[in-house]
Amino acid sequence: MLRPKRLTHLSRCGSPRMVDVGEKPVSRRTAAAEAYVAVGPAVAALIRKTGAVAKGNVLETARLAGIMAAKQTPAIVPLCHPIPLDRVDVEARLEGDRVHIVATASAEARTGVEMEAMTAAAAAALTVYDMVKSAGKGAEIGPVRLLEKTGGRSGRWKREEHHRGPR
Amino acid sequence: MLRPKRLTHLSRCGSPRMVDVGEKPVSRRTAAAEAYVAVGPAVAALIRKTGAVAKGNVLETARLAGIMAAKQTPAIVPLCHPIPLDRVDVEARLEGDRVHIVATASAEARTGVEMEAMTAAAAAALTVYDMVKSAGKGAEIGPVRLLEKTGGRSGRWKREEHHRGPR
Amino acid sequence: MLRPKRLTHLSRCGSPRMVDVGEKPVSRRTAAAEAYVAVGPAVAALIRKTGAVAKGNVLETARLAGIMAAKQTPAIVPLCHPIPLDRVDVEARLEGDRVHIVATASAEARTGVEMEAMTAAAAAALTVYDMVKSAGKGAEIGPVRLLEKTGGRSGRWKREEHHRGPR
Amino acid sequence: MLRPKRLTHLSRCGSPRMVDVGEKPVSRRTAAAEAYVAVGPAVAALIRKTGAVAKGNVLETARLAGIMAAKQTPAIVPLCHPIPLDRVDVEARLEGDRVHIVATASAEARTGVEMEAMTAAAAAALTVYDMVKSAGKGAEIGPVRLLEKTGGRSGRWKREEHHRGPR
Amino acid sequence: MLRPKRLTHLSRCGSPRMVDVGEKPVSRRTAAAEAYVAVGPAVAALIRKTGAVAKGNVLETARLAGIMAAKQTPAIVPLCHPIPLDRVDVEARLEGDRVHIVATASAEARTGVEMEAMTAAAAAALTVYDMVKSAGKGAEIGPVRLLEKTGGRSGRWKREEHHRGPR
Amino acid sequence: MLRPKRLTHLSRCGSPRMVDVGEKPVSRRTAAAEAYVAVGPAVAALIRKTGAVAKGNVLETARLAGIMAAKQTPAIVPLCHPIPLDRVDVEARLEGDRVHIVATASAEARTGVEMEAMTAAAAAALTVYDMVKSAGKGAEIGPVRLLEKTGGRSGRWKREEHHRGPR
Asked: What pLDDT is stored for residue D167 in this prediction?
């Protein structure tokens, strides 16, 4: 990682701002982000059981929450631009005692869709937490992190493999 | 933790539902949640420098984003009840190479404000990520977790101390 | 039905207004509304098949859409009051070639929750239409109508039985 | 109508998803939808009288509600894409004992604006119901249905004439 | 006006915060605010003419926009509490070459409804500007100001008469 | 200013409508608007003092509120089109006893961004009012007015200099 000189979301005099993307060319943008929710073995067993009996509704509800939140990104993250998203997809599955969420977004836009993917992943994780908290308030969300993005001047960025395992 | 029998957000036949809180008494509810954003040393140095020069705007923007997101909780987390919040507060500071966010919420309501605190913390963390991502896409959010809650039938819950350190 | 003298949502000089409910006592309010979506036999077969294979996701998505829309009622219906809902529930099932949606809402409030139930039912129906429209744009929503409400000065209202059958 | 093979809003494994429209070309899209509200003779007389005396405010309020709701479509219908609408128009008039609403929308986009027109029509109808319900809770909304759409790969679709009369 | 010691919306260390109203008693709150839009004689004549011919729709649209915006106050003004409004009313009329808007709000709450009235007045004024700007971009909004508020510890506050005339 | 014949936001028969911009070419659009908040000398001194001690948080909060409100413009101003904004910037500073806000917006769109700039300025002003009202309810917002706009068929418009001074 090169040493950054300045945070682009702060003006020269340090005030937060929405970056001007008017000069950037429109290009196809994609981004993928992931989130984990460590729910503990008892809740994991419940989700597994419910998944069999009752159609995996914790995970399905989380997925829809993620999709809807992606569209609200500019209202949740103050300096984000409104983006006409072409696609949002959220996958959620149980891996051991953790729910693993992967959110992807794409658009043809002047700025990237990383925040849409990150917001979708975080909202899906919050929704899992909400649904299991009566059974286990100690559940923890994290890491929530970008996996990959393409498009724009900086092109493709991909999280290095050894960063993708469990914490 | 006792073995939960059922997830309260799923009906007997497994469908997600908004829990009926109509029979619960109104009581004072508080909740605190925290979130970390691991930004790496280079970005941490930038935030520190900007904090001195330009009034800590990454952290201030994150705080406001958290406060505003708490009020949007029912629109972000599908099964949350709308709650007339009496207070939301979000603190954010740099601790080493991580931004540490603590969000608190309170209300007099039939249901708890855990999700408002969790959503505020997560949105503040997303906002930090948004503002530093041009300098470091590898930053990671987490853990996002409940620290404490009071009120309601289940009364006080507090995260055990040894769970509160760095991951 | 008695002859109404005036529409309460219009002021004496005919302008639309939000009715002042400040003088009304707080009471427990409930309402139930239903909506139908006539999808035709081919789509009904697909929903049925998908329901078996893939967990009834058209109906589950519709249910969640209804729950979330109920919370947005004051932003959708201009003269509605914001209400701290205690519960929203939406059921959706296939009956012959129609999807039948029943939405219920309750709150302790100065004004009724009829519009929350109606909005939930309508939004669930729109969501069904959205998901089946690629297979059948001719699908029709309706009737959307109140089934019952309780609470408030006017007390209980219930749709008469012979009005509840298929159109 | 050809037999559909699959609902495009469900993935191969049956999960609801936002359809990826990234590969579709941008084209001019229009859609028109209608909704009826059967209000009964007493309320119809009131609307008529108010229309003369007080400028048709039930109908005007419904029209504005429809226009505003069209812009909220992606927040109401979970799998809808955000679309930069070029136009929304909502007409509302009394026809006998029913209010007839026609909503039209257009955009230059990768996906159609059917849901924007349908949502506008439904929200306008809900608003009529809200304003007349104190005088007649038995009022019914429906049918809400697409009249026509143009643009996109599937081109023009028009509801057949004999389907357009009263129920 | 007494000399204020501190702004209550800033914490002791100067950070913006949502004031904790949890300790305040619930009381009936009302507020009234006004806004002017100076539209110039040509546009005023058009509004007047349209009012006669076409039912005063600039003013009616502004009124509804104000009512709807009042309900969005916590999403527009970052440190405002969500309040279960009992009533919002917005009047708008032409006075000479200016549109005069008066917005009133009331609720039974722990905090005042001044911002709801102010936001309603401002949004109604923005809507008037939007509708006349093609005819006169030079139109000006202002003053937007509180007229009166009641309830809460500070009780009644009323703008002094000589402040209520034209600027 | 030429004599306008008709308000474009009213249809031929006088009903409010969203203007159809589908036929307009996409062009780069910019707009700047300003707002003043007259806070009085005591509050001005407090803001100044807080600005030194505590990082100008009234002004920073107002700036962020303006940026976020610009993105909500289509939900606040009923007949506005949704616009994919490329940039929003809000400046706020104390000038004597008044806070002076300047908001700018830009987009590549079929319609102008005047309302986004005006809404940002007004929301920032409302936020200043909210934060100082405990110290001075008599504060007044205004004028809120367009300074300049570029792009579109009507091209550049600029407020004449002698209109830009203090009231």
From this structure: 39
Structure tokens at C33: 């509304």
**What was the pLDDT predicted at C57?**
83
Mean pLDDT of D150-157: 92
Is the minimum CB–CB distance between E57 and chain D shorter than 8 Å?
yes
Q: Phi, psi at residue A65, to the nearest 5°?
A: -60, -40
| pLDDT, tens digit, 9 for 90 and up, residues E13-60 | 567 788 899 989 999 999 999 999 999 999 899 888 765 334 348 898
CA distance E18 to E3: 22
Residue C59 and residue F61: Cα distance in Å, rounded?
A: 43
Instruction: Band the pLDDT of A5: cuts 50, 70, 90.
Output: low
Q: What is the distance between the alpha carbons of residues B46 and B26, in angstroms, rounded to a whole number?
A: 46
Contacts of A79 (CB under 8 A, 6+ apart): A9, A16, A17, A18, A19, B61, B127, B130, B131, F67
Give per-residue pLDDT as tens, B33-56. Answer: 999 999 999 889 988 876 533 434
Which residues have a Cβ under 8 Å from the Cβ of C166 and sit 6 or more positions away? C36, C98
Binary contact (E58, F16; C-beta < 8 A):
yes
Pairing of strands C87-95, F157-158: unpaired
Nearest CA in chain C to E103: C17
pLDDT of D2 strictly over 50: no
Q: Which helix (H) or strand (E) holds F146?
A: strand F140-150
If you count them, how many residues does chain B have? 167
- The two structure tokens encoding residue E24: 């305040």
Higher pLDDT, D40 or D3: D40
CB-CB under 8 Å, B16 with C60: yes
Q: Which residues of D touch A110 (CB under 8 A)?
A: none
Task: Give the nearest chain A residue to F69 (CA atoms).
Answer: A75
- Computed over every residue of chain B, the mean pLDDT equals 87
- Which of the following is catalytic: F20, F86, F89, F130? F130
Q: Is D30 exposed, middle or buried (0-12, 13-18, 19+ CB in 10 A)?
A: buried
How far is the C-alpha of F113 from the C-alpha of F129, rounded, in Å?
25
Domain spans in chain F, listed from the N-terminal domain onward: 27-153
Is F86 a residue of the active site?
Answer: no
Structure tokens at B47: 């935030």
Interface test with F, best of A71, A79, A81 (most F CBs within 10 A): A81
Name the pLDDT band for C165 (thresholds 50, 70, 90): very low
Closest among D99, D9, A156, A155 to C46, alpha carbons compared: D9
The pLDDT assigned to D52 comes to: 38
Q: Is B153 on the interface with A (CB under 8 A)?
A: no
Check residue B163 and report its DSSP letter: G
Indicate the pTM of the whole model: 0.93
Continuous segment of H or E residues that includes residue F71: helix F57-71
DSSP states of A58-86 as a string? HHHHHHHHHHHHHHTHHHHSTTPPP--EE
Q: What does the longest C-alpha to C-alpha distance in chain C come to? A: 58
- Distance, in Å, from the CA atom of B77 to the CA atom of B26, rounded to the nearest integer, reads 22
Please report the ipTM that was assigned to this predicted complex: 0.91
Q: Which CATH superfamily is domain D27-153 in?
A: Molybdopterin cofactor biosynthesis C (MoaC) domain (3.30.70.640)
Q: Which helix (H) or strand (E) holds F84?
A: none
What are the backbone dihedrals phi and psi of residue D44, each rounded to the nearest 5 degrees, phi first? -55, -40
Q: What is the pLDDT of residue F10?
A: 67
3-class secondary structure, E140? strand
Q: Which amino acid belongs to residue D14? A: G
- E24 at interface of C, judged by CB pairs closer than 8 A: no
Compare CB distances from E55 to D55, D64, D68 and report the shortest one's residue: D55
Between CA B110 and CA B151 the distance in angstroms is 9
pLDDT of B10 reads 66
Residues in chain E closer than 8 A to C21 (CB atoms):
86-87
> pLDDT tens for residues A81-132?
999 999 999 999 999 999 999 999 999 999 999 999 999 999 999 999 999 9
